Amino acid sequence: MKTEAQTHNELVQRSLASVWHPCTQMKDHEWLPMVPIASAEGVWLTDTDGKRYLDAVSSWWTNIFGHRHPVIVKRLKEQLDTLDHVIFAGFTHEPAVKLAEKLCELTQLDRCFYADNGSAAVEVALKMSSHYWRNTGKPQKTRFIALSNGYHGETLGALAVGDTGLYRDSYKPLLMQPVFVQSPDCFERGAGTSWEDHSRRAFAHMEFALEQHAHETAAVIVEPLVQCAGGMRMYHPIYLTMLREACTRHGVHLIVDEIATGFGRTGMLWASDWAKLDRESAQPIRGDFMCLSKGLTGGTLPLAAVMTTNTVYEAFYDDYGSYKAFLHSHSYTGNPLACAAALATLEIFESENWLARNREVGHLMWMRMSELLSHPHVAEVRQQGMILAVELMKNPGKKIAYPAEERRGLRVYRHGLEKGVLLRPLGNVVYLMPPYTIESKEVELMTKTAIEGIAIATRD
Length: 460
Ligand SMILES: *Cc1c(COP(=O)(O)O)cnc(C)c1O
Known about the structure:
Elements: H1 4-18, E1 37-41, E2 44-47, E3 52-55, H2 58-61, H3 70-80, H4 94-107, E4 111-115, H5 118-135, E5 143-147, H6 156-160, H7 165-168, E6 179-181, H8 195-213, E7 217-222, E8 226-227, E9 233-234, H9 238-250, E10 253-257, E11 289-292, E12 304-308, H10 310-314, H11 336-351, H12 354-369, E13 378-384, E14 387-392, H13 408-419, E15 421-422, E16 429-432, H14 440-457
Parallel strand pairs: 3-15, 5-6, 5-7, 7-10, 10-11
Antiparallel strand pairs: 1-2, 2-3, 4-12, 8-9, 11-12, 13-14, 14-16
Helix pairs in contact: 3-11, 4-11, 8-9, 12-14, 13-14
């Protein structure tokens, strides 16, 4: 009989010998532990040694209701006993139809196109937008405008409209060239400038880019309110209000990438709900395209949806043989199991006032983490709903960053692993993005461990 420790170490060794892990310099695992997980429940992951880890990042922002939520497990088992998968061209099924209806209702958009991950959803939105212009007699509109520090995924099209250096630079020769516009990111605001003023002023760059490039531009793509992979950098919703107005005025689509921010993460159902069409109306802005994934299935199965308008849809509706149809597909488009998991996730969402609960939990997170505001190596503690981020800097007063090779964030991560909290950072940004189901005492453990980890990581 093997001991638990032997099983544990053996699995780590086999993983390092056979698997190429995502978003990882594999050599780091010479000093950074690889954690073999055996099971999960609620906010907890359990490794093969029986050690538990609080999942403070919702496993890359997907498990919004924790792991193995009983409603999702039940609905998924029922679906598995009924229909596993079917080709989605020429065939349809209840879970995909019901989910499309629900998403149309929740997003106030008219059509749902399925894909199977976030990057693929972004590809679909980019292709659909430029194809729309071609179909409507403006084939020169093929470029995109994107924000600096944005992130939209890793496939070549999605990577091209992202601006996170580390991820993009190696593939530069392969990528189309969008127009990058300075982000309204409020970490960059001057002393004494409000978030609103900073974001409003930053819009001048977007207005200028639209004036210069609208004639050749299909769409502007943005992450609403929070540039997540770019270090949880945040901006004011006024920017989205201004962007919606300007896109309409310039005849350019707006693609709102809600892949990370959707489903209540920022305190509203959609981050774009924070931005109103104008001062008088309570009507939130809508993109011409809205990309959804991550939280969509509550972290159960890969699925994505691109929501769009009837105006876009109708520009593709024509006799076959014209170039007008949107001939894009994935083998697993509209997978019934994934759709059932998404419906179960929405069922949980509707079962309780999660937005109100998230406001309470978010407040508790702030109460604990705001003690870091006076820490000598903390440049900012910022929060938007259930996303709280701490920006570490060598000298915040002089805006001197820690050199990347010092891996300060990873030191916090390593401390978290020791203490049983999963706190995977983004460079020198440590963030909390827990499942909505987290309890007060778990918030205590998570925040205490993050604060301790930051103290240790910035000691020398
Ligand atoms: C994660 C993410 C993506 C890419 O989704 P994948 O499923 O990882 O391909 C795209 N946009 C945003 C804003 C994301 O956070």
